[in-house]
Design a protein that fits this description.
By secondary structure, the protein is an alpha/beta fold. It has three domains: about 1-55 and about 200-280 and about 415-465, FAD/NAD(P)-binding domain; about 110-190, no CATH class; about 285-405, no CATH class. Helices cover about 40% and strands about 20% of the residues. The chain has 17 helices and 19 strands. Strands 1, 2, 3, 10, 11, 12, 13 and 19 form an eight-stranded mixed β-sheet that branches. Strands 8-7-15-16-17-14-18 form a seven-stranded mixed β-sheet, with helices on both faces. β2 (about 10-15), α1 and β3 form a beta-alpha-beta unit. The two termini are about 30 Å apart. The model has no long low-confidence stretch (mean pLDDT about 95). Bound molecules: flavin-adenine dinucleotide. Flavin-adenine dinucleotide (FAD) binds next to α1, β14, α15 and α17.
């Protein structure tokens, strides 16, 4: 049951601020360990970026394009067996661009087939590349970046880099300049067994999560914005939520890392050194999306579940976020995502820069959104001829939309760049009782990364609460 701030208790052991997958999972783990947990979410709905919305008879999933098989284990261990059973494999992932057009199950075996048979790469080199990824260790001092990694195995093969890198750029905003370890971890997670989805949709998953949290005794408050961390004797002693002080021994923020430190806490509590480290953390890029719903009774033949399309001649991470959009990922939701329904929806996702959207006048913003929708439908027509006539609903989201709904600085959809991980993981070592779990450092993003990070930090909170 969702509560209002006015109905909350005066004191909790821990306040989890933000109900994204990291916050939701952390709250559940901590409640199961017997702690008194308040989950405070500023929006009226749970889920954060892992959300959905209903319009004109359609349900649109915002971030259910796919995640690695690891999500099944995470749901089973930290949520419920019933939820884990809803995890189903996505059948086909397609790539269509000027360099190649291929269809894959997105597994190591199938990617090897494409690299060898379609892109003529030597099989031994492919195997060595996978071996290097498998041997990558987060704690090694390996300073190689993605550009160097690809240059080592596939020099001057922009097409190969495109196949290997483009889906990951979409998934977490990373570029060739990111540390190769981030690519190694995320790509290997997917390659282990392909791409998976949640049967029943995001709405069912969040509904099941809410029930599980309530069963485990979590107080869940929506429209509950954490405005300030209250410090007493150099430790966290509470939080101001919608102007009301609620006492607690610790706060775990699932909100944006930089906002947590700079706005909720404030500079005064940071040492000079830590402040300098925090100031170096860069936000990751943002996203745009176009949502398309089909008229009742309309349908189309199967075209794959995930379709990475581009009209740009080669892989270029900068072009993937350019305001002149050339690359889009289509997530195609057939009725079987929600068994028993007959709704077809398509969500096109693009990586975007906040700066390209923020200075537009109201009129320009509206026009640009319409342009985004129209261009997307034109591109989609190549895969579903005559699609325009079958549509009864379209809408677009921009970095401004993501900022408005999640309060993430600059609408950042994938948290921070790599350096944010260290700050997030060690925040509680600098500020007694303040923890962070949420998209950071590229590795800890996506459904699996965020949920697992929630568990990692819940363990830290558990230790802290036990000893205080
Ligand atoms: C367009 C798009 C598509 C995506 N597709 C996929 C996909 O297919 N597969 C995948 O694995 N990942 C995908 N992702 C990424 C994935 O959804 C996110 O990485 C993940 O859901 C983030 O979880 P999180 O725990 O970091 O929290 P977030 O989802 O970032 O949520 C943070 C929460 O904190 C709340 N909050 C913020 N400030 C406050 C405050 N002051 N007080 C209270 N609450 C506050 C916000 O409202 C929000 O609910 C996608 C992301 C985007 C943007």
């Amino acid at each position: 049951m969702l509560k209002k701030v006015s109905n909350l208790e005066e004191e909790y052991d821990i306040i989890v601020a933000g109900a994204g997958l990291g916050g939701l999972t952390a709250a559940n783990v901590l409640a199961k360990r017997g702690w008194k947990v308040l989950l405070a979410e500023q929006h009226s709905m749970l889920g954060g970026l892992a959300t959905y919305f209903k319009r004109k008879g359609h349900i649109f999933d915002v971030a259910l394009h796919g995640f690695p098989i690891g999500m099944k284990k995470t749901l089973r261990k930290y949520w419920s067996k019933e939820m884990a059973e809803k995890i189903k494999q996505v059948k086909s992932v397609r790539f269509d661009n000027p360099q190649f057009s291929v269809e894959t199950t997105f597994t190591e075996e199938d990617f090897t087939r494409i690299l060898v048979e379609d892109l003529n790469v030597d099989k031994k080199t492919v195997n060595e590349f996978y071996k290097e990824l498998a041997n990558m260790n987060f704690f090694d001092e390996n300073q190689m970046n993605n550009r160097e990694l690809f240059e080592k195995y596939f020099p001057d093969r922009n097409d190969v880099v495109r196949l290997l890198m483009e889906p990951i750029t979409y998934a977490n905003g990373s570029t060739l300049d990111e540390p190769a370890i981030t690519y190694g971890i995320v790509f290997s997670n997917f390659m282990s067994k392909g791409v998976y989805t949640f049967e029943g949709g995001t709405d069912l998953m969040l509904d099941m999560m809410e029930k599980e949290l309530t069963k485990n005794g979590v107080d869940i408050a929506t429209c509950a914005k954490v405005e300030e961390i209250v410090m007493e004797d150099n430790k966290v002693a509470g939080a101001i939520i919608n102007g009301k002080k609620i006492k607690c021994k610790g706060v775990m923020s699932n909100g944006n890392l930089l906002k947590t430190i700079n706005e909720w806490l404030g500079e005064d509590y940071l040492t000079k050194e830590f402040s300098a480290t925090v100031n170096k953390v860069r936000l990751n890029t943002s996203s745009s999306q176009v949502y398309i719903g089909l008229k009742k009774g309309e349908s189309f033949d199967y075209i794959g579940d995930l379709l990475f399309t581009s009209t740009y001649p080669e892989y270029d991470a900068a072009k993937l976020i350019d305001k002149n959009i050339t690359s889009r990922t289509f997530s195609v939701y057939y009725p079987d995502i929600r068994p028993g329904t007959d709704d077809y929806t398509i969500v096109a996702s693009m990586n975007s820069k906040y700066e390209d959207w923020i200075d537009l006048s109201k009129e320009e913003y509206k026009e640009k959104k319409q342009e985004l929708i129209d261009d997307t439908i034109k591109i989609l027509d190549k895969y579903i001829p005559g699609i325009a006539d079958k549509i009864d609903y379209t809408e677009a989201a921009t970095p401004k939309t993501f900022e408005r709904y999640t309060l993430h600085g600059k609408g950042s959809s994938f948290g921070t760049k790599f350096e944010g991980l260290d700050v997030s993981m060690n925040l509680h070592k600098h500020i007694n009782g303040l923890f962070h779990a949420g998209s950071v450092g590229i590795i800890m993003s996506g459904w699996l990364g965020a949920a697992n990070y929630g568990v990692i930090m819940a363990n830290e909170v558990d230790k802290y609460l036990t000893s205080n």
